[in-house]
Specification:
By secondary structure, the chain is an all-alpha fold. It contains 17 helices and no strands. It is found in: Cell membrane.
Amino acid sequence: MQDKDQHKRATFKKDFLWYFLGSIVPMMVGFVKTPIFTRYFDKESFGQLGLVTITFSFLGMIFFSWISSCLWRYYSKYEASGQLRFLYSNLFFLFSISMLLLSLITAGWFLNSGNSLIRELIGYSFVQLIFNQLYLGYMVVIRLTGKSMYYTVIQGVKSLLGLFTALIFVFYFEWGIVALVSSLAFIDLCALIFLTLTNPAKLMFGIKDIKKSMLIALLQYGSAGLILNLSLLSISYSDRYIIALFYDLDQVGVYDQVYKISQISIMALIAIYFNTVNPVLLKRLESDFKGSLALTKSYLFIFIFFGLPIVFYLSLFSKELAWLLLGKDFRAGYILMPSIFMATFLQGLSNFFELRLKFSDRIKKLVIIALITALLNIVFNLILVSSFGYEWAAHTTVISYTVMILMLVYGDPMVLGIIKEKHKILIELIVLLTIQYMVYIIFVDKMNIQNGTRMGIGFIFALLFLIYFRKAISKMELPAN
């Protein structure tokens, strides 16, 4: 039994390492692309790009993302009964119907747009969305089957090829900002062709496998998931439309690029963590919901213990990060970064509660909470952004996610019981971060030193955190069963 547990923990650590490598490459590619292209294209162009791509994010959520959520929810169930082919066939049928409906909407938008750049962005964004959703759906299966190394290699190669393709399209073919979308569409198509020819997940489809009863069940779950996902997407992205309502496209462009570069740094780490724990956690939630509480709490504590310092250090040195990662015209947006870091962290924290509500068949309650949060976010934005500036869009996102977390905790307080159980080490963590903050404010911030040196101090702070808690970290268990 002990050997079995050790094997599971070794597998967990191996998967974490592979997912870390698989996520760090796309994150680094994003860090390379942003300073290059924010120095090359102007703020207005990024504003147009942002509004089109965010609109397609909403369309993608409406037509496709709920299908992937069904895959996450039902994979373990159908795998156990040996009926995965039925699940794949019915989900692909729903995808085909969604693609047809999206084609009609996109055609109407394209024909009614009078701006040539917007029409190009619409066309390429539509193609990229279709290819990307098919690719992402396949990669969900790869993750669920535990092929962490395969996932890492594909993600890394795809990200690097996407960067090189964008650079070629922009600087050799001189395509303009539309190249940032067309290059993604091209690489997604190549990845999709490769996966179709090799089929490592052994996906199989059949028209005869499509059943009305299964379609209805998937639609019922998916419709609730759709409202949920739209609400969550609205919290993160609806602020662009509100900024465009009260300000120029320049402000939209600055906000959009600062938000993306800030979000990717935290979201990539969150993705690494959940890619690793989800296969284990989802199976436990499906097979033993009551017994899954201890596992959820353990994963949650690790998320908080490492997540808070990461958010703190990135926020403390946000000005230096903006100098490194953004073009000159975009660097003033550094004041947004701490709020975006925290909002993204809270979004990741909410995932633990969301999973418990989904697997306890309380998704309607989750939908109501998400809807309330989304509506509050829109109201906050309309009032605060119009009155105090577009910067408040980032602050309202933090406020909205805080309200959401409070509602989730009220409905499932046992999950955060881990904070009481681990309160001593968390207090030590807060004290250490407070001391470092005071050192920065009193000494570092007053010194006239270069940005590179300041960032070096940030690495020293992070190293001190690891040294101080080295014993506690070594004793932390990463439950893998």
